[in-house]
């Protein structure tokens, strides 16, 4: 059984009609673009964040456009159903808890979208569970919130999609970073202890993990 991040802030879907929300779909290896195209052809709103990376071949260096979150595609819908979203070629499951789809907050999707649209160099980053939460106050990333880190002499703001345990980092000037509004971002109690949460699993087309 594969597990999603048990500390992620998620919402569960009830049987009643809900607004369109973002979900993370798992796809076959190296099929992210094909899955996204198939979902779009069915009329779903899809987000596949890409970044440019250089790969060295035997005789040359080639620049490629690769998925930021390999193996995942984001889809916005009421609920990923078996006959629709999960029947799409290359889509294997929807990330969820207890065999129920888990919603990714709109703010996390929009922060990643802003990073990608900025044109700044991006690189994958380990998910950080501690550190100061900050807000970028100026420049093309103004309004984005994340975790401030420092690598040698460079400052970076790390934006996380917690459900997938993945993060993206962008290099910024320290002068444009300020303290974020400290609302419900922490995962630890005042005594420093971590709060237990239910185990999460990926839900497949048949409702099994």
Description:
With 209 residues, this protein is mainly beta. It contains 2 helices and 14 strands, in the order βαββββββαβββββββ. It has helices at 32-41, 106-118; strands at 21-27, 45-47, 50-56, 61-67, 72-77, 91-97, 100-101, 122-125, 133-136, 145-151, 154-161, 166-172, 177-179, 201-203. The strands form 3 sheets. Strands 1, 2, 5, 6, 7 and 14 form a 6-stranded antiparallel β-sheet that branches. The longest helix has 13 residues, at 106-118. The N and C termini lie close together (6 Å).
Topology:
Layout: E1 21-27, H1 32-41, E2 45-47, E3 50-56, E4 61-67, E5 72-77, E6 91-97, E7 100-101, H2 106-118, E8 122-125, E9 133-136, E10 145-151, E11 154-161, E12 166-172, E13 177-179, E14 201-203
Antiparallel strand pairs: 1-5, 1-6, 2-5, 3-4, 6-7, 6-14, 8-12, 9-10, 9-13, 10-11, 11-12
Task: Give a short overview.
The protein is mostly beta strands. It has two helices and 14 strands.
């Amino acid at each position: 059984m594969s597990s999603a991040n048990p500390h992620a802030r998620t919402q569960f879907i009830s049987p009643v009609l809900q607004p369109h929300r973002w979900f993370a779909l798992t796809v076959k290896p190296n099929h992210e673009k094909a899955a996204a195209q198939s979902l779009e052809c069915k009329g779903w709103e899809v987000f596949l964040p890409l970044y440019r990376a250089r790969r060295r071949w035997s005789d040359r260096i080639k620049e490629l456009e690769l998925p930021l979150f390999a193996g995942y595609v984001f889809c916005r819908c009421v609920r990923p159903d078996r006959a629709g979203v999960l029947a799409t070629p290359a889509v294997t499951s929807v990330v969820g808890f207890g065999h129920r789809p888990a919603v990714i907050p709109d703010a996390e999707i929009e922060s990643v979208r802003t990073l990608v649209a900025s044109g700044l160099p991006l690189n994958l980053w380990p998910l950080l569970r501690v550190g100061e939460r900050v807000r970028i106050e100026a420049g093309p990333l103004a309004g984005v919130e994340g975790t401030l880190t420092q690598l040698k002499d460079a400052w970076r703001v790390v934006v996380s999609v917690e459900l997938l345990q993945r993060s993206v980092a962008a290099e910024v000037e320290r002068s444009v970073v300020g303290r974020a509004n400290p609302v419900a971002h922490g995962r630890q109690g005042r005594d420093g202890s971590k709060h237990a949460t239910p185990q999460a699993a990926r839900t497949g087309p048949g409702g099994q993990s």
